[in-house]
Design brief:
Elements: H1 4-17, E1 18-19, H2 21-31, H3 44-59, H4 66-80, H5 88-107, E2 126-127
């Protein structure tokens, strides 16, 4: 027998561990040009690794702020940035933008009846972390 608290726990776990990564990166592929955290002189490819770090950070934040995680995320970025020429000082603003977007989306996912849903969730949602 499932209790309401069990359902809430499952919804919380789904909300915090799944995201449609392709959809989220597609958003940033176009939105980065207009966002103040990004330089207009850089291409999307330079920012993609930082965006992924920000998304993963949100999913693993366990209630911590981006600032509390910044130093550890810098190390993750340096290990995973691939060919990006951005250092962490510049890339961190993109990671923070992705983290804040995910956090704002999470706040907006409770419907009027209090049931949480994944924004843009589809069968292609992936588990991160």
């Amino acid at each position: 027998m499932l209790f309401a608290s069990d359902i809430d726990s499952v919804q919380d776990a789904v909300q915090q561990n799944f995201v449609d990564l392709d959809k989220e990166l597609a958003y940033w592929r176009y939105a980065y040009r207009e966002h103040p955290a990004f330089s207009p002189n850089r291409g999307y490819e330079e920012y993609e690794a930082a965006l992924k770090v920000g998304i993963h950070a949100y999913l693993d934040d366990h209630g911590r702020s981006f600032e509390e995680m910044r130093d550890g995320l810098g190390e993750t970025y340096r290990r995973t940035r691939g060919g990006s020429r951005l250092d962490w000082d510049e890339a961190s603003s993109a990671a923070a933008a992705a983290w804040h977007r995910m956090r704002n989306m999470h706040r907006d996912t409770a419907s009027a009846d209090g049931v949480a849903t994944l924004p843009g969730a589809s069968t292609s949602a992936v588990m991160l972390g």
